[in-house]
Q: What sequence folds into this?
């Protein structure tokens, strides 16, 4: 899997938007961008994934740069429950169903 | 849907003892993954199965670790003999083969004294 780079930590205030960046300059044309998060004392959970176009779901939005060398996970209104480690992972389309390889992720702190 | 079920949630054992961790994947899922998480090494893939067959066990630390999937609804991860450095949280995850989403269990926290 191609490598991703994320900041170690970020801070946010409750009810404010959060933009979590991920750099993946060596991404290939068939690599999907996946985001998972891990709440304290829980297993990782799926957040969102995309290939080229921006994606939205009930949890978050994924904004993908035009050259695909970076992406941003957007939490529109952070809550205390969004405090977690957020992982950005690349996986090739032909590897769907194979394991995900997790990096260190970004630890998001949310203050009230 | 009960999700991925792992047991035990917590286990404390002494060095040298055998440890067996269990996982029940989501019904209908045909890929199963075992991960280990420590502060030092983060989340590491140990092994994964497709249709009950081990596909990649390159992450299994050494011969003391073994994993089996005798049927589509059950998998075990065994450590024999256990050592203090095996202390970690062990996660099981499952997915539909070919799908993009992995669903994780709550984890089994192992402490080896």
A:
């Amino acid at each position: 899997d191609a490598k991703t780079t994320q900041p170690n930590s970020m801070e946010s205030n409750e009810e404010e938007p959060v933009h979590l960046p991920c750099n993946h300059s060596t991404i290939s044309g068939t690599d999907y961008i996946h985001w998972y998060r891990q709440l304290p004392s829980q297993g990782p959970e799926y957040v969102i994934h995309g290939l080229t176009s921006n994606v939205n779901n009930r949890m978050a939005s994924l904004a993908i740069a035009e050259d695909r060398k970076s992406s941003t996970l957007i939490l529109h209104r952070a809550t205390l429950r969004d405090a977690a480690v957020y992982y950005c992972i690349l996986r090739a389309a032909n590897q769907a169903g194979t394991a995900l390889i997790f990096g260190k992720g970004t630890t998001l702190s949310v203050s009230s | 849907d009960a999700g991925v079920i792992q047991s035990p949630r917590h286990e404390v054992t002494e060095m040298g003892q055998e440890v067996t961790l269990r996982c029940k994947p989501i019904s209908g899922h045909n890929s199963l993954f075992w991960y280990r998480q420590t502060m030092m090494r983060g989340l590491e893939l140990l092994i994964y199965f497709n249709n009950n067959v081990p596909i990649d066990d390159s992450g299994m630390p050494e011969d003391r670790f073994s994993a089996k999937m005798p049927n589509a609804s059950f998998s075990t991860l065994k450590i024999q003999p256990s050592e203090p450095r095996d202390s970690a949280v062990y996660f099981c995850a499952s997915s539909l083969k070919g799908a993009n989403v992995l669903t994780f269990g709550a984890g089994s926290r192992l402490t080896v004294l």
Summary: The two ends of chain A are 37 Å apart (CA to CA). Chain A has a mean pLDDT of 92.
